[in-house]
């Protein structure tokens, strides 16, 4: 029980440290967006960045979904074979 309590305290401490370190990164995102959207060429680049973010966000979900689909399918196939025996 004490180990679990110490682990939870360590996790919360690390989460707090990471949250404090991230504040400067949030400001940079706003600055980049403002700089990109201030000109016509920058707006086109910003659109490309948005599409890139969606692509980078969708790829892990697609990979995880594909692996999960085949794992569930294999499990169901094995369960069906056990029922037939």
Describe this structure in words.
- It is a single chain.
- The chain has 85 residues and is mainly alpha-helical.
- The protein folds into two domains: 1-36; 40-85.
- It has three helices and no strands.
- The protein is flat.
- The mean pLDDT is 80.
- What's the story with the biggest beta sheet? none
Shape: flat
- Percent of residues in helical segments? over 70%
Number of helices: 3
What's the total count of β strands? 0
Mean residue pLDDT: 80
Counting helices, strands and paired strands, the structural category is mainly alpha
Please write the string of helix (H) and strand (E) elements.
HHH
* Beginning-to-end CA distance, first to last residue: 45 Å
Assess the beta-strand content as a share of residues: under 5%
Kindly provide the radius of gyration, computed on alpha-carbon positions and rounded to a whole number of angstroms.
Answer: 23 Å
List the uncertain runs.
Answer: none
The number of domains is: 2
């Amino acid at each position: 029980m004490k180990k679990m309590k110490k682990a939870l305290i360590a996790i919360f401490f690390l989460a707090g440290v990471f949250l404090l370190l991230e504040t400067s990164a949030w400001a940079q995102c706003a600055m980049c967006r403002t700089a990109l959207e201030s000109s016509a060429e920058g707006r086109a680049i910003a659109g490309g960045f948005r599409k890139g973010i969606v692509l980078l966000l969708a790829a892990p979900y697609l990979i995880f979904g594909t692996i999960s689909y085949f794992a569930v399918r294999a499990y169901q196939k094995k369960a069906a074979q056990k029922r037939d025996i």
